Amino acid sequence: MEIPVRQVTDDEAAFFIEHGWVRLGRLVPPDVAAELRERAAGYLRERSKSRRTLVDEAFGQSRDIAAADELFGALALSPAMGQGAVRLLRGVRAVRVQVTNLLVKEAGEHGATEFHQDFPWMPMDRSAMLTVWLALADVPADMGSLRFYDGSHRYGLLGRSFTRPGDDQLTQHPWLKELELSPPLDLRAGDATVHHALTVHGAPANRRDRPRLSFTVTYFDADALYTGLPYQQTDGLGLQINRPFEHERFPCLRP
Ligand SMILES: O=C(O)CCC(=O)C(=O)O
Q1: Distance of alpha carbon 37 from its chain centroid, rounded?
Q2: Of all atoms in ligand 1, which is nearest to the CA of residue 212?
Q3: What is the DSSP string of 109-175?
Q4: CA distance readout (Å), 190 to 29, 91, 114
Q5: Closest Cα partner for 147 from 173, 174, 115?
Q6: Predicted confidence (pLDDT) per residue in 5-47, tens digit
Q7: Do residues 107 and 208 touch, judged by C-beta distance below 8 A?
Q8: Neighbours of 126 (CB within 10 A)
Q9: Domains in the chain, please, with CATH?
Q10: Whether the CB of 148 sits within 6 Å of ligand 1
Q11: 161 has a pLDDT exceeding 70
Q12: How far is CA 63 from the centre of its chain?
């Protein structure tokens, strides 16, 4: 099964490298987004709502969706997605999939996504990592499309968020407000944003009356070595410290 994914342009790659995020309009055609959306709705109905972590208060998740569903699997493993990730992460030879996820932000049920970095949790020895966030239905800005602190990927590890109330990045690092905040983005189904794992990002609550639905896939440098840092996803997989993530859970995409 092949999913039509368009190539990342030179301008988009340059924008990402400078700003730490980029918008990719019409990454997949709207009819493909519609098919993905229909499948997503089913999986999200089945998701467990029992855990109430600080993340659960911001959005619901159905993790590893690409392993469960062939269409999401084909998208995450599509050569164009791999090529795009390699170009945006400048200097990497190939990427591996770290995780795929379906996200839902329900109006009324979920709050804002506090500003955070993704990388501080990760057991990789280098930070070349990004997430493609694909809108499965139209996501006008007031439904909770992501916002990014421009250039924040240049400031290294800023610490973990979602460990306790009040540990969002703006509270920990008020100087971040001196950086420009990306504009509110109105996304159409099939549009995506991409952010670096060091880019500080968040999203407002969903102010519309229908759920915000998106699919994410996170790619990282295929040459990254496992550090052994405790992490729920990797604990117990038998990964070797100081060796690459050679495991079926982290499929490798070479351009
Ligand atoms: O969708 C959201 O509100 C947050 C998603 C996010 O932080 C991520 O994909 O890294």
Answers
A1: 17
A2: 1
A3: T---EEEE-SGGG--BSS--EEEEEEESS-B-GGGT--EEBTTGGGG------SSSTT-SHHHH-GG
A4: 6, 27, 24
A5: 115
A6: 999 999 999 999 999 999 999 999 999 999 999 999 888 877 7
A7: yes
A8: 14
A9: 10-226+237-242 (2.60.120.620)
A10: no
A11: yes
A12: 12
3-state secondary structure of 83: helix
**CA–CA separation, 22 vs 96, rounded Å?**
20
| Tokens (6 digits) for 149 | 């602190």
Q: Which two tokens stand for residue 76?
A: 């995450």
Q: Determine the Cα–Cα distance for residues 115 and 172; give it in Å rounded to an integer.
A: 10
Residue to probe by mutation, ligand 1, list 193, 216, 218, 219, most atoms within 8 Å of CB: 216
Does 59 contact ligand 1 (Cβ within 6 A)? yes
Whether this prediction's pTM lies above 0.90 is answered by: yes
Asked if residue 115 has its Cβ within 6 Å of ligand 1, the reply is no
| pLDDT tens digits, 192-241 | 999 999 999 999 999 999 999 999 999 999 999 999 999 999 999 999 99
**Which residues lie closer than 8 Å to 92 by C-beta, 6 or more apart?**
86, 128, 221, 222, 223
> For atom 7 of ligand 1, which residue has the closest CA?
202
Helix, strand, coil fractions of the chain, as percent rounded to 5 = 25, 25, 50
Mode of pairing for the β-strands spanning 212-221 and 192-196 = unpaired
Question: Which residue among 63, 100, 121, 131 has the greatest number of ligand 1 atoms within 8 angstroms of its CB, and so is best to mutate?
Answer: 131
pLDDT at 50: 64
